[in-house]
Amino acid sequence: MYTLPRETDILIVYYTRFGTLGRLAEEIAAGARSVPRTTVSLLRVEDQPIEELRPGEDEAAMRRRRAVILQRLAAADALIVGAPSYFGSMASPVKRFFEDCVTASIPPMTDRSRPWRQHLFHRKVGGAFTTSATPHGGNEQTLHSILTMLIHLGLILVTPGQGAPILENEAAPYGPTAITGPEGDRPPGPAEAEAARAYGALVAEVTAWLRWGRGEWERWRATAYPTPAPASGAPPT
């Protein structure tokens, strides 16, 4: 039977100003780590664009820093993306982060305004989470905006769906949320934290299923449809 050659790699990409969304990210990470053979890491998005030089940094150092970020994104089996709700949509640094990442390797003379043409994230698992100041502060619309971006980038979405008891559970079916209050610093409540942990475990499990299923399918295909050996003297195909 096929076994996974390495642990499932989950990367949580998030942006936070007041800390609550970061705490929600930690709860999601804790849930994902509860699934055996799962590695979880967190990547905090900064306000500055990736290619903007940091204090004391030159172009070479910026390229090295950018390469590390791109390698982390490329290596992950699943990306769970979190952004606070600003004007009913994801915070702009998150959108800019992904636009910059998927076009980072394109030469300057190439049109970099169409990041969905790049395939860096194709076939990864994707998910979303958010926070808003009030229950009607745009959290569901923000989840939609993140999930739509992930669809354009070719990810396979995993959402929690309606929680039990149906129509009585306050959790959003699109991803974990938390209400931060007027100052933006209210920590996730018990129900919000529990929903976040359950979601992290769900994403980790589904990602492992997909990886295992792909391995089984490739093994079956190689057995059922073996590639014929080239004829003697024929060039390899």
Short description:
With 237 residues, this protein is α/β, with parallel strands linked by helices.
Notable features of this structure?
six-stranded parallel beta sheet, 237 residues, Rossmann fold, two-stranded antiparallel ribbon, globular, alpha/beta, 38% helix
Structure in words:
About 40% of the residues lie in helices and about 15% in strands. The chain is of the alpha/beta class. The protein has a single domain, classed as Flavodoxin domain (Rossmann fold). Helix 1 packs across helix 5. The mean pLDDT is about 90.
Specify Rg, calculated over alpha carbons: 20 Å
CATH class designation? Alpha Beta
- C-alpha end-to-end distance: 30 Å
In CATH, the homologous superfamily goes by the name Flavodoxin domain
Task: Point out poorly predicted stretches.
Answer: none
User: Helix amount, in percent?
Assistant: 25-40%
From the spread of the alpha carbons, the general shape counts as globular
Residue fraction in strands = 15-25%
Number-wise, the strands total 8
Structural class: alpha/beta
Q: How many structural domains are formed by the residues?
A: 1
CATH architecture descriptor: 3-Layer(aba) Sandwich
Largest sheet: 6 strands, parallel
Mean pLDDT: 89
The helix tally amounts to 5
Please trace the helix and strand order, writing H or E for each element.
EHEHEEEHEHEEH
> According to CATH, what is the topology?
Rossmann fold
